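G.,

No rush on this.
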Amino acid sequence: MKIAVLGAGAFGTALGQVLTENGTKVQYYDPAFSDVTLIEALSGAGMVLLAVPSATLSTVLPELPKDVPLIVATKGILDDRIFDDFSDVMILSGPGYAEDIKSHKPAVFTVSDTRLREIFAADYLKFDLSQDKKGILLCGALKNVYAIMAGLLDLEPGTTQHEEFLTDVAAEMKAVLEANGAKAETVDLSCGKGDLRLTCGVPSRNYEFGRAMRLGDSCLPGKTVEGVTVLGKIREGDLIVPESAKYLRDLLEKSEAWS
């Protein structure tokens, strides 16, 4: 089977490497890295793997075939209504830096479909299974936002303050998921607490962005900071923010100056 991987950045190519090692034919599409057109990449593909920045989804999704299963590895999606048919969408999310995956370091991902366990089977990868696709997406978006806050607060991983922050944020994320029609318990999976812990420290660019903003520096050049994009979407009304989400509300107020 051929899988078209849309997005040839670090994460897209890391997942593509897993597929290739499993004998799957992979065709990348990414105008920044290749002259291959989207039509060429999609030709003959049995599945499409989406690994593009969330800010580009509005231009990419309308061009995808409606009869080919879609695997979403993009993080930063708050509104599942961007998909025409959410029932035929599979989600893969969780902690794992691209270079670690390429080096075959152990990682645990959350998947919404058992097919993904087979497609990405590797002795160094394990998988949680959850049918809460919306919750998986929300966790993947929110963890970047809270990583910015961890950087702003200058919290060092391994300290008591950092651990208390992670505990408080996990509870806050559960409240946000419930307020938006997802399941609170999804936060307990690798896509939630696992990815949150990984992202709230170096070398996470969201964490580093928060630290830079704390020092009054400008946005990190040449890097996508997904948490900033997500905050903009939240301000536009793409997410219900409960009163109890104090960290998120505080960050929304602070981020007004970054827009």
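When you get to it, here's the other one too:
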Amino acid sequence: MDKIREYSLKKSFVLGMAVTVAGILFLSVFSIYGSYRLQKWIMPESNEVYLEMETKRENGQVERDEYLMEYGREEFYSPLLSEGEELPKVNSFTIRRGNAEFAELTPKRKAAYRFLSVTMFLLPVMFSAVGVGLCGWWFYRKKLAVPLAVLSDATEHICQKDLDFTVDYRSGDELGRLCGSFEKMRCALSDNYKELWNMIENRKQLQMSIAHDLRTPITIIKGYVEFLLKNLDGGITRKKEKRVLHHLFSAAMRLERYTESVRNISQVEETDIRKEECLLREVVEDMASDFTVLADRYGKSLALEKDLPDGRGLIDRQYLCRVLENIIVNDLRYAENEIRMKVEKKGSRLLIMIMDDGKGFSEELLNGRGMKLFYSEAKGEHLGIGLAVSRILCEKMGGGMKLENSKEGGAAVTIWIEI
């Protein structure tokens, strides 16, 4: 029966109908023949025959005689002759079989005979109806009931916005393939919901970060404006006034940088990743050469360790370079002497770890603050959006980013992307 699950719906239906028709024909023939034999038992055929003869005498007289005889007995012709007489010349004769008469049967036998006549017609009709019904029930139970229940349950889960389930129905027929397609759709919906959820969370973080980080310059501007309003009548010196205006200008510039950074983040989130096939080893070596020149400008060194096969992969070189540049420039600010970059391929992913010999990340950053916007370990002109941008780009390339401190104490950033 397990093989039937692999048959197509059409093949299963044809097979079921063929078996059903064969069964109906067999039972119909058997019932008709059985009813016929029972009727013969109720009203058996007689072994007697009627002999009808027409004889023309010499005088022209025609005589018709009818005799009831038992077929096959020796005295078959004995009634035709009288002792000492010659056999008359018979012009024609007819022999017909003698049957028992229905009127001679008992009432019970008559009822049974009539019932058997009806069953000869009704039983085939009943067998046809029951056979088609059983075939339909079998086809529904074996081929339709389970996948329809699975799809109905899956639809109910999706209507309730619950994608934490599995469409599990394995069959080689059309409904099995439909359930497989439904499972792919569920996975796609789940991934889209997760992506949407992450996008919403990122938006929330953006809003919280903006509200938090804009509060300080706004408070500064508000405070200095209030101070100026209170001293409009010349209560402050010219020098003090210039100093206040300088602080107001600095706070305004900081607000401008914040808004520009938010715009850049929005542009990154809307960026389309365009991967192209390229040699992995060649891409890594070219980027390492560029970063080595960058490290020289900071008075540091860059050591590259790679474990890559001579194969190809799909990479968006522009945005991978931007991610690495954000991380390496950040490391160059805190490294003492050297940065190490380790590159390897694991399965379908390109894994890159960048480590420095500095003091490492703070606990605040490792606890998650570093993934938010406008966070920086340094105070001053840097707004600290590099990590957030790098994380967004890694996720758009099918990967992610992880921050930690190495065993030696320096900072370690690990990124991975699908290639």
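The chain has three domains: 3-144, 163-270, 273-418. The first strand starts at residue 45 and ends at 56.

Enjoy the weekend,
O.
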